[in-house]
Amino acid sequence: MSLIEFAPRSLFAARYYTLKRDGVEIGRIDCGGIRQPASIVIGGATFSPARDGVLRATYHLDGNGARLATAAPAGAARRRFTVEAGARTWTLAVASWSGRRFTLTENGAAVGAIARSGFFTAKSTAELPDDLPLEVQAFLIWLVIITWRRQAATNAVISGAVAFQSTS
After folding, report:
1. Handedness of CA 138, 141, 147, 153 (dihedral sign)
2. Phi, psi of 74 (to 5 degrees)
3. Is the distance from CB of 91 to CB of 108 less than 8 angstroms?
């Protein structure tokens, strides 16, 4: 099991994440933006994570002209994914009520976790199997990051609606 630490590069660049192992940078994730594709860079190689579809989106990771991994939502809340890479299949699912911790299971057994390091920090860790290629590990981290970002946006909209409704 290897431990990867990741966090936004800065408070003002929350779409850019740095991946570190033992304090040494091993890669970067650019979550993308409006009309700008996401990317994962590992050791000089660039991989392309992307989303297909709108309502029932599926996700995939491409690199070197090949599809390396796919992820499809496995639940209505979009906080659980069935991930396939090669001949292997995992489930990546929320493991805490706050959504700050995800577990990775294979054949029903927990094999990894991705979680925030604390309640008031953006620093996070991913403890994933060593036999999982690093670019697939980064893809799993990207899935968790975009899920966290989507949840934060949803919470902001709900808070705004509640505040608006209470002033009416």
Report:
1. negative
2. -110, 5
3. no
With beta carbons less than 8 A apart as the criterion, state whether 145 and 29 touch.
Answer: yes
**Integer angstrom CA distances of residue 103 from 77, 88, 147, 160:** 16, 16, 14, 31
Strand partners, 44: none
How many Cβ atoms sit within 10 Å of the Cβ of residue 155?
Answer: 11
> Given CA atoms 153, 157, 159, 163 in this order, what sign does their dihedral have?
positive
Q: What is the pTM of this model?
A: 0.86
pLDDT truncated to tens, each residue of the chain (168 aa)?
Answer: 889 999 998 777 678 999 999 999 999 999 988 778 999 999 999 999 998 877 778 999 999 999 999 999 987 666 789 999 999 999 999 987 777 899 999 999 999 999 998 777 779 999 999 999 999 999 999 999 998 887 655 555 555 555 556 665
Q: Based on the number of CB atoms within 10 Å of its own CB, is 36 exposed (0-12), middle (13-18) or buried (19 or more)?
A: exposed
Q: In degrees, to the nearest 5, what angle opens at C-alpha 38 toward C-alphas 57 and 121?
A: 95
d(CA 37, CA 128): 25
